[in-house]
Amino acid sequence: MDFNQNTRLLVVAAHPDDEVLGCGGTLAKAITHGAQVAVLFLGEGVSVRFPYGEYDSDEFKKQSAVRIEGAKMALEFLGIKDVTFNLDRKCCQFDTYPLTTLVKEVQSHIERFKPTILFTHNNAEVNIDHGITYKAVENACRPTCPYVPKEIYTFEIVCSGSWSFDSNFKPNVYVDISKFWDKKLKAWHCYQGEARPFPFPRSDTGLEALARYRGMACGVEKAEGFRLIRRVF
Q1: In what order do the strands lie in the sheet with 82-84?
Q2: Is the CB of residue 61 less than 8 Å from the CB of residue 80?
Q3: Which of 14, 51, 92, 152 has the fewest CB atoms within 10 Å, measured from its CB?
Q4: Peptide bond into 199 cis (omega under 30)
């Protein structure tokens, strides 16, 4: 993965915070090397914590506002200004929407931003929205579609990936984020209320354990792992 001033990197994420968890260190590194980065969130991230259909309470509105504010702060800290939110699509309910609506949304952003690299979820995690996001990107990136990026990678999300009964995510590309770890962690801290004490995977210790584990696989202190889906030379 080569980052430079010609790099246009699009992240297609299911929920706000997935971008930092999955590739926050890599995004910081890419921007340092001059890359332009855009982030598309296909849904919001808190409705799953409330009874189905009961989204009018003050507490729901409060938690939603906190999550969005956290995303804005995290992305601003990383230096990302091109951000699109879809707050109408509910968390862990992507299966209730026609897949074509997600596909067209991804396609419209690809056509607008014209990425050279695309990051998205892998299809082997517990969270149903992650798998559907993967399918939407897969459909949107058919080789006959215009402006399809030359490089497509999937990332991993702790919790969703950690708790899968039969995870088959096997990274084959690693990005050394040793010098960008502190920046990733600070971006994560912008998402108030999302971390819990270790051994919860999204604790500071849990996130660092994964970064060090991926780092050991490629001989560096800390890394983020990706799965190369397609690369056209």
Answers
A1: 82-84, 36-41, 8-13, 117-121, 151-155, 223-231, 173-176
A2: no
A3: 51
A4: yes
Q: Which residues contact 51 (CB under 8 A, 6 or more apart)?
A: none
Q: Please tell me the distance from the alpha carbon of residue 40 to that of residue 55, in angstroms, as a whole number.
A: 23
Q: Given this model, what pLDDT does residue 120 score?
A: 98
State the average pLDDT over residues 92-100.
98
The candidate with the shortest Cα–Cα distance to 187, out of 46, 37, 54, is 37
Give residues with Cβ within 8 angstroms of 29, minimum separation 6: 3, 175, 176, 177, 179, 180
CB-facing half-sphere around the CA of 125: CA atoms within 13 A: 27
Q: pLDDT, tens digit, for every residue of 105-153?
A: 999 999 999 999 999 999 999 999 999 999 999 999 999 999 999 999 9
* C-beta separation of 78 from 28 below 8 A: yes
Tell me: pLDDT of 174 over 90: yes
Torsion of CA 107, 113, 117, 119, to 10 degrees: -60
| Alpha carbon 21 to its chain's center | 7
Q: Is the pTM higher than 0.90? A: yes
